[in-house]
Amino acid sequence: MFQIRSDLALEIRELYKENTQQEIPGVEVEQKKQEFATITHVKVLNQEGSKIMGKPEGSYITIESPSLKKADADVKDALSQLLAKELVNLIPNKSNFKTLIVGLGNWDITPDALGPQVVSKVFVTRHFFEMYKKTDDPTMRPVSAISPGVMGTTGIETVEIIRGIVEKTKPDLVVAIDALASRRMQRVHTTIQISTTGINPGSGIGNKRKELSQHTLGVPVIAIGVPTVVDAATLANDTIKLVVDALSDQASKESEFYKLLRGMSDEDKYSLIKEVLDPYGANVIVTTKDIDVIITNISQVIANALNIALHPGIDLKDVNRYLQ
Amino acid sequence: MFQIRSDLALEIRELYKENTQQEIPGVEVEQKKQEFATITHVKVLNQEGSKIMGKPEGSYITIESPSLKKADADVKDALSQLLAKELVNLIPNKSNFKTLIVGLGNWDITPDALGPQVVSKVFVTRHFFEMYKKTDDPTMRPVSAISPGVMGTTGIETVEIIRGIVEKTKPDLVVAIDALASRRMQRVHTTIQISTTGINPGSGIGNKRKELSQHTLGVPVIAIGVPTVVDAATLANDTIKLVVDALSDQASKESEFYKLLRGMSDEDKYSLIKEVLDPYGANVIVTTKDIDVIITNISQVIANALNIALHPGIDLKDVNRYLQ
Amino acid sequence: MFQIRSDLALEIRELYKENTQQEIPGVEVEQKKQEFATITHVKVLNQEGSKIMGKPEGSYITIESPSLKKADADVKDALSQLLAKELVNLIPNKSNFKTLIVGLGNWDITPDALGPQVVSKVFVTRHFFEMYKKTDDPTMRPVSAISPGVMGTTGIETVEIIRGIVEKTKPDLVVAIDALASRRMQRVHTTIQISTTGINPGSGIGNKRKELSQHTLGVPVIAIGVPTVVDAATLANDTIKLVVDALSDQASKESEFYKLLRGMSDEDKYSLIKEVLDPYGANVIVTTKDIDVIITNISQVIANALNIALHPGIDLKDVNRYLQ
Amino acid sequence: MFQIRSDLALEIRELYKENTQQEIPGVEVEQKKQEFATITHVKVLNQEGSKIMGKPEGSYITIESPSLKKADADVKDALSQLLAKELVNLIPNKSNFKTLIVGLGNWDITPDALGPQVVSKVFVTRHFFEMYKKTDDPTMRPVSAISPGVMGTTGIETVEIIRGIVEKTKPDLVVAIDALASRRMQRVHTTIQISTTGINPGSGIGNKRKELSQHTLGVPVIAIGVPTVVDAATLANDTIKLVVDALSDQASKESEFYKLLRGMSDEDKYSLIKEVLDPYGANVIVTTKDIDVIITNISQVIANALNIALHPGIDLKDVNRYLQ
């Protein structure tokens, strides 16, 4: 059994289908098209699906919209609304429901700064509730937010920091925002993934203690991720596939070498490339030139969506009024 | 008895002396001049001194250097060395001594970003100790660092966040870096204050629970602060004094109005101005145009000093090699 | 005859009226209130008005809106529309009409970066016309844009740089965007001034050769300015006035000193304060803490307005689509 | 005859040698090793060399140092010194020799911002000479500097803007700083190229009028460039080569497909890949995560070198004093 690694559940399912011409067993997929976006719900229903996906059981919702990276205010509003609707379905409609928003990533490194930028823009209210000893408000619910930084700059596992804060502030829900890597350039800056299973940094074996999840934090964790880079090995892999396809027309399909290349699974090729690229280091990223502007735009979409979804008194009409 | 409010112990003592022509009882002052800086040790020895100063008993060390705001690499190195020496005197020389550096302030607001900028530049090592299960190293000691943000963007009291992290990571010392406000424009960007008593945000009555100190965190707290702004009321106050002085030569010193103005204590005048300025809001700051560059320079000086003071294997010669 | 110095025509007229209880001769003033803004047209009609104002004959249009500094998307759109309407009245409705937008100021210094930020956001099209040898297009007109920097970083008078570019590219109009200083804190970030007379840096005597105007560039120059700072002397001056007013109730109005203070003209007081503050240097600015965010918001309002006003095919509905 | 395209003369020569196992005729190469760097002088001596290189006759000096991307102050100083020495050899030692420094690229896009960041850091002096009508000074020479932006944001060919400024300010020399693309990831952030032939944006046929050179500006142009990105096609190309090499061991070298792949020239493969990648757009870049910090460091090295090389009164000891 092979294992496709990607931050996006959608991509794993896609690559699985390409390789096997069938759906992943134990995984349910539903898709709806909207004016500005395609929304796909991938549900990992049981252990079998979970094993193949390399992701815990739960819901993975993907909003795909090539317009996400645009500065168009109307489209941004529409996407905030779409995202807010999906979030509302996942968040209990209780007054005084407490949410902690966690912006993961390094704010000094642009493609990694999505989480911290969302945190700078959301409407935080927990301190008002504390100050005035409120337990209830018709227009808002208690929201707090933090960008803890990354282990390279803090020296502390992110989960340790968040666990400390969760114990002190006792939220009912953690929403974690993170920049992801995609396997496909086309998904970069165009895709938002919501998942009910939290975040698994590295998501390899033995990293259990590092994940941000109900398991480690004691409260449900919704993760919101946007791919902002492609890793170099992925790009090389995709390109080789395209080049081999292009060359195939010129080469005899019976040739040994061609068969060798075609016969390798995508994962084998990916591993080979990864190995070959190793000296370049994990520090190499593939992204777009205009990433500074795009991260600003997308973080606004997500912050607006969170403001709408978390506060009953905010709807799209006035949401920009609450942008920090 | 009157109360002068300032983030800088040095200023309070100075203003007290100006007003009363005597030293504050219960406060010891010592000054030494160096090539690039004047270093003043203000020791608040007892409750009487503490009451007048409005600051807890402890040591307040001020390094004053007009060159601090310059980009001159040699002077920056000299000041890092001076600051490191003062810190070394305050930090136990034990291997495996664990320090948590806390960068206070909002990284999106330039004059407030000093703490976060220092945190981005210090050399953190705690995760190496954790990963390799080290308890000891000849060249480094375990250092972690965090910029928690401010209550306006997190919704959480900073002390709650830090207390959570201190409980999880158990440092032996917290060093907190903060941008301060000065009463005098000349001190802005030219002064570093170290204190052994932690940080009292607002430092008014009833704010006890908000302070970052041994009292609230359970471990000693060293605070490092640099004034990056003057508050508007201060500037107005200083100016009025200068203008009244200038006008006095033209006015009869016997005049009632003159006597009224001269007769008011500085603190009364300051309060009056504060009240008058209220509609402008606390949001108004007085600073210098080149603050972006200056904050970068000063945060480098402080990060270098911390790297030298905390890690036995780092001295000035190689300190820039460890700048993140 | 006294001379009030301010970047804002509105303020000069206001201060004149306060001091003399009459309108400036040779100056016509008209005001209309709108939903989000008050618009004031100050027309300097002749030499007498020009002398008193310290500004050339021409139109000075001020849009005042406390909402300008807000992030509210709807209000921003409304203000862009208002500004666009005023600009349309000043710009000939000719196809192939060529405009050069000049962003004055230093992009590394936040309160000075308004012009450069507008330039990064406007929709430039001149190169399409050049590439395809177009002379005419139903939806757009040729627009170019440059941020030349300031003399301190270029070593060149800005007018020399712009004159060189005007000679090479032959625009029909220059629109120059600049950050201004206001006399009143309340105007900071809330006011847009359009003037048909260009820009006079320093605007003192002998600076004629430095101005950006039809006189120096050979084409009409429209200036758009927004106050982003108050100078320190102004703040001190305003405060003294408020404090003296507050104190007056306690002092006999017959006192000599009071009369001295009251008797001084605002300008005399301002000069005295300026002199007293001199050691602080011109580098001191008074602004608001959240200036980074506000400059971004206002530059978007202005860039949108320019896009609507300059390109017949762009209206408010799609204007954000053309934001760079 | 084939044509290798690269911004770096060194790379073209290297790839030529790899493909042909011989030196390029009409090109002289000399290499010296220093403590922190390898310096290579490539001289294109005649038309034949120029044709093969795709670069004008002239000198191309490359300083290669893996330490360039480090923050180490001592190494940065050593590299500034090395670069300054090479520049001094190219710049006439005349008092009152006027230099205009041009920072090419878009300051809003990090990997493109090298030129503008150097311009913000160099010591400009021309305005002092103008103000005091100096023609001569023992410590400094008249230097001006500008970052004109890129055609996408100005709507004007950069050469038109610079020509306008050259005509107005009459410098004796233009030094243009630009971010380059490399063919090899290892060269990114580790290489400085100086050339005496100016800059050819795109450098394809028909672009003659766009180049910044003595030909278009009327004064000599020295170009300083640093590769800050690899283009995606290059990365894919390099990887394919490595993968094919790795696979070859498993495949019969007699296979048709293998021969096809091996038989293609690098340039043919590059073109094929370029075509295949086209939908991704030219907007895709490959760089390193820490590019923000690295661009700051490298721009400091170059600014220091220019300050030392252009002003007789500045040497390494005090150079940081003149950093803006």
Automatic annotation (TrEMBL), chains A, B, C, D:
Q: Which family does it belong to?
A: Belongs to the peptidase A25 family.
The protein's matches in Gene3D superfamilies, at most eight in alphabetical order, are given as: HybD-like
Enzyme Commission no: 3.4.24.78
Q: Which organism is it from?
A: Crassaminicella thermophila
Mention one GO biological process in which this protein takes part, according to its record. proteolysis
Q: Which UniProt keywords apply?
A: Hydrolase, Protease, Zymogen
Report what the Swiss-Prot or TrEMBL entry states about this protein's PTMs: Autoproteolytically processed. The inactive tetrameric zymogen termed p46 autoprocesses to a smaller form termed p41, which is active only during spore germination.
User: What Gene Ontology molecular-function terms does this entry list?
Assistant: metalloendopeptidase activity
Q: Which reaction does it catalyse?
A: Endopeptidase action with P4 Glu or Asp, P1 preferably Glu > Asp, P1' hydrophobic and P2' Ala
The broad enzyme category this protein falls into is: hydrolase
Q: What is this protein called?
A: Germination protease
Subunit structure as annotated in this protein's UniProt entry: Homotetramer.
The family database entries (Pfam families) matched by this protein are listed as: Peptidase_A25
InterPro entries in alphabetical order: Pept_HybD-like_dom_sf, Peptidase_A25
